[in-house]
Amino acid sequence: MKAGLIRVLLTAAVCALPLIGASLSARAEGERFVFVSHAPDSDSWWNTVKNGLKNAEKDLGVKVEYRNPSTGDIAEMARIVEQAAASNPTGIITTVADYGVLEAAVKGAVAKGIPVITVNSGTAEESKKLGALMHIGQPEYDAGKGAGERAKAAGVARFLCVNEYITNNASVQRCQGYADGLGVPLGDHMLDSGTDPIEAYNKVKAYLTAHPDTDGILTLGPTSADPTIKLLRDTGSSGNYKSFITFDLDSGISTAIKDGIIESAIDQQPYLQGYLPVVLLTEYARYGVIPANNVNTGPGFITKANIGLVERLAGEYR
């Protein structure tokens, strides 16, 4: 009963955020925030996050600058965080794509007294160690485990996890969670595909050729899902796999769900990962208030049963 009430209250609070923004905009003080992501320019999944940033900007009367390494290079991302801190913004929002590479830059911003919220990639534990106020995202291990349990129910025995960000601890947690949900060791089931679509296509093809008994596939986002979908279409082999699940959504993934190639996509609600941190940092800057706990924006599962509604909002709110 108590848990149900809490869920209702949390839902009401999230639904009320646009109204909160409308009331706060009357007290706008020109706050400026910098959002730093690890995504390369080619990753269109982040357009939904950017839409959340844009709407928060408009609702709150603040300025939000989106910055990222054009090729997804994490060392460059660390330099971007350092540059953001040097500009003395009201707050910084950043992903934690590689804790070891980003640690010094993020801790440096915190040491300067700049409030930081971590989002999307990284874990709540890493966020706390960095000195951030909170983490907004989905618990990646739990999301992966949920996918693994779905694959187990479908009868999967051997799987491939296509990991485009293998140095990212959160990505590895997705694969590990899947393996644990399936009840098998991760072992050699995780493939470092890289972010180049042609390279990913060829690596997945080589793996599946070398391991013809593979009957389950997990991809970690459009960067790895789209080349894998293309491969299965090109070879006419989608029927060989009892379960193909991916993280996140784009038009290619939506079509693959409708065509029965992908069983489900894990939704972490990227719009909220853009909108919420701006709202919360603005309230923190103006009133000194911040939620006591991290915010989980996922996971949810998008299937053929609900893809119609989600697809209409894809790229903007989903």
Automatic annotation (TrEMBL):
Coiled coil: none annotated. CDD domains: PBP1_ABC_sugar_binding-like (cd06312). GO terms for molecular function: carbohydrate binding. It is found in: Periplasm. Residues 1-28 form the signal peptide. Its main location: periplasm. Belongs to the bacterial solute-binding protein 2 family. This is Sugar ABC transporter substrate-binding protein.
